[in-house]
Amino acid sequence: MDIYQSRLLAECIRHIEKTSPSDKFKASYSELSLVGAIIKRARLADLRYQILPTIEHLQLLVKRFYFLTSFCFVLLGATSASQLLITESKQLNFFWVFFLFIIPNILSLVVWGGLYLNSRILGFAWITNISLSVITLLDKLHVKLSNKQPYYLDLFQFYFEHRFTENMGKRELSYLSHLCWSCYLFGATISLLMLLATHQVDFIWQTTILTESTFLFLTELLTYLPNLLSLDVPNSGDVINASIDLANAALNKQDIRFSWANLLFFSLIFYGLLPRVILAFTFYFSAKVKRNRFNLNLSLPYYVQLKNILQPLSSRSFIKDPDNKHNSIMDTIDTSIQNYNVDLFIPLNTFPIAIELTQVHLNQANLHRESYSDAHLINAVDHESQYEIESELSLLKPVEIAVYVDIQRLPDRGWLSFINKCNKKSDRRIYIILLGDENIEGNKALLAKFQDWIAMASRVNIPAQDITYLINKREVKYE
Amino acid sequence: MNNQLLSVAVVGHANTGKTSLIRTLLRDADFGEIEDKAGTTRHVEGAEIRVDDSPNIIIYDTPGLEDSIHLLTTLNRDRANDNDDGIEYLLDLIKHEDQHPDLNQEIKVLKALLSNDIIFYVIDVREPILGKYRDELKVLSYAAKPIIPVLNFIEAGETNINAWKIQLARLNLHAFVSFDNVIFRFADEMKIYQKMQTLLSHHEQQLEHLIVQRKQQWQERENAAQSLIATLLIEAAACRFKAENNEKSIVEASDKLQSSIRFLETQTLVQLLGLYQFKQQDVDLYDLPIQEGRWELDLFSLETAQEFGLKASSNFVKGAGVGVAVDLVAAGMTLGAAAAVGGVAGVLWGVKQRYYDELLAKIKGHRFVCADDLTLTVLWNRQFKLLSALQQRGHASVSKIHLDDSRFTGSSLPKSFLKWLKLARQHPQWSDTNNSSQPLMTKEKNTLILDICSTINRN
After folding, report:
1. Residues of chain A numbered 418-477 and touching chain B (CB < 8 Å)
2. What's the gap in Å between the CA of B44 and the closest CA on chain A?
3. Does any domain span residue B251?
4. Same structural domain for residues A343 and A306?
5. Which candidate in A18, A40, A164, A314 is best for mutational testing of the B interface (most B CBs within 10 A)?
6. What's the whole-number average pLDDT of chain B?
7. Has this prediction a pTM greater than 0.90?
């Protein structure tokens, strides 16, 4: 499959998937460029959608259409020349031939040039539409067509729009136009050649409203090039002699016939067929080059989405240093808050500790501490304050400890480690007083935090009954 | 350019948003685990950020430094020689890892510190400055690696930002960046890479390349999103259903219209989410308050007349082309006449294609039900609201995007808005739901989409 075919397949897949690309076609795209990845994905997707045969069928359809059209135009040219130019009197009106083949050809070239330069007019969407209507009609008549490939009509519409509109369409339709004219003129030339080879005809001219000088001027114009090439073509005298009344007057009739035949074939070939053939080849190769240069429009939302799928900003994550020591104790702990002690009683002389409290909550804790202890409440916020608390505990050896923490803070291993240090011999009873500003009831976030604290406390054997929650009364100020 | 892989370790206290930061930088909502509790990340997890189809940066997520006080105490206590530098302290502790099972997670962080080029230290600025954070920074300083403090949750923690900045400056950390996992700003992300450029001069080109590509990708997405919104507007405006001139038929047509426009909007929503790599469950979508709109073809409106004129001339030319071909069949006998007839036929064909449905409806007394201006204005504004929400949403966000049905004033609309609607309504073939047999005029539709997008960009 060549690059154009691959890109066309990708575009057809886009057309089928319409809005959002499917992420089902998994493969390794990391080593490829974006276009390469899109093409690889398109090939994978085709295994599912099976549209490549349809694309090839449509391409073949275009080729057959071109061939059929060419054949028809060859026949048309041949029949036009054979049936309408020869009269019973075996006379051939040279200027009628000229007007019939060369003038329409030149006019058509002018029209084509105008259309080609005016891209707005040359939309050709109507050709697609007519073709689609015809195919739809055929499809209705032959239901098999749509059953064969569910995307056939969509693809047909897309393919013809792709090939016969925009810039590619200009080249394709120009090629088709020149091909038709080439075939028509070729058919006419061959037909005339055969006719003149097998019939003896006299060349004449007739007119009602044009003057003799017009024909002389036109002949001079037409014979300018053949004269340069030293071809035997009619001179002004031959033109005058070719008048219908004088047609039989000339003495060297065979030479004159030959020179007129020369001029006829020269005009048909050099003023008609050759430019058309050159243009047909030019636009054939131009269309081919355009096809080979056909690029996917990666700024389309579909491709931007596809880029996210095929080449995400990041590649798959990987674990570098795995956790092998995770225990599932936390998962099995009962964290229901039903057992927490709403009216927790703190015995007298319990040693108070604050952990990472803000000034507001430290004030709240101090207020509460006054009810059972005169000890100074140390706030453990760093290594020094922790050391100070540990020293106090070693010195005073209290049996009970009250730990004040902010319910909003996260219970972490640092907290756990410090509590363990405070209760090295596990013979102390530890109460946890959670401090907060809001009621737990109906507050899911706060409830979750409460449960986290219950779970963490249980890891140092503090039961829920030894945990309470105090709501800060903002109007009370500590002095 | 130095194409060596640049490695970054993201460290910080527990629950400061390390994984969230990485999710946002990677645009990957599936990276790692996020929970509002400590110890969620328990291993070192890495992912590559790609530039030009190849990995450029490896970014590592690490467990939280939950017990930095104990870690620092252990480091200082266990050091063999007072003259050793910080790296030696860290290496010594790593070497005796088995003796410190309680610091298992912290040692993983230390290994990440030593093995990466640069450190992002994520700070939850909602938190007050505590001693343990100072201890964390001291431990980080032992690794002798460039550190970029990332101030996270800056919207919610606005009151603490200055205090944190002063604290960081005291520790000689002046090159910090602000970030918010909840309210994402693309400029903040760029600042992170720019700070990295400053600190890692030998990777400057590599990072510049990354910055340029990220900006380009951001712009690409925005353009694509605008194109999707423009397409939705056009297709919704073009969408119409024929109804007989009675209430029942009009209600039925209105129902069909509503479901079609909802379908179109949902389709656009899915695409917008896909563009910004979010999932459908990220958005709370409610039904669009569509009102019954009626549109009757105004054959004599300026736009219609202009369009008719253009179509007439273009079809005339095409028809003339057909005429010449016909003429050839007759071998030039009726050259001029055929060309003229061909031209007229082309015009008539174009008129039939364009106005047949409308004229037939007019004769039969049918009408077309289509979305009214207000509905389309709501639709338009909703998409921009959604786009704005998606652009400001971090990939770690767990809350849903809510699109309320607030009405917008016409003043915020582009000047050509009504002109676009009128144009779209005149092209029912632009909406697939209409199954119109008219010429597709895809080129004209694409031109209008481009026009809308350029107007959006200008505004």
Report:
1. 418, 445, 448, 452
2. 5
3. yes
4. no
5. A314
6. 77
7. no
Q: What is the CA radius of gyration of chain A?
A: 48
DSSP character at residue B295: E
Using CA atoms, how far apart are residues B407 and B373, in angstroms rounded to an integer?
12
What residue numbers bound the domain in which A342 lies? 335-471
Give CA–CA dist A185/A190, Å, rounded: 8
Nearest Cα residue in chain B from A130: B439
Q: How many domains does chain A have?
A: 2
CB contact under 8 A, A314 and B47: yes
Which of A292, A102, A321, A78 has the alpha carbon at shortest distance from B108?
A321
Classify residue B13: in a domain, yes or no: yes
* Residue B11: strand pairing partners: B121
pLDDT in tens, A431-459: 999 998 888 888 888 888 888 888 888 88
**How far is it, in rounded angstroms, from Cα A200 to Cα A205?**
17
Which tokens go with B195? 């700070």
Q: Tell me if A321 and B320 make a contact (CB, 8 A cut-off).
A: no
> Nearest C-alpha of chain A: how many angstroms from B300?
24
Chain B residues within an 8 Å CB radius of A34 = 53
Q: Do both B236 and B192 map to the same domain? A: no
Tokens 């106090």 belong to residue: A392
Which of the four pLDDT bands, split at 50, 70 and 90, describes residue A218? Answer: confident
Do residue B164 and residue B246 come from a single domain?
no
Residues A391-443 pLDDT 10s: 998 888 898 999 999 988 888 888 888 888 888 766 789 999 999 888 888 88
Residue labelled with tokens 């290496």: B91
Structure tokens at B110: 């230390």
Is A344 exposed, middle or buried (CB count within 10 Å of its CB: 0-12, 13-18, 19+)?
Answer: middle
Whether A25 and A163 map to the same domain: the answer is yes
Distance CA B21, CA B122 (A): 8
Residue to test with chain B: of A96, A115, A323, most B Cβ within 10 A = A323
- On whether both B170 and B291 belong to a single domain, the answer is no
Neighbours of B381 (CB within 10 A): 18
**What is the Cα–Cα distance from B393 to B382, expressed in whole angstroms?**
16
Residues found in chain A: 479
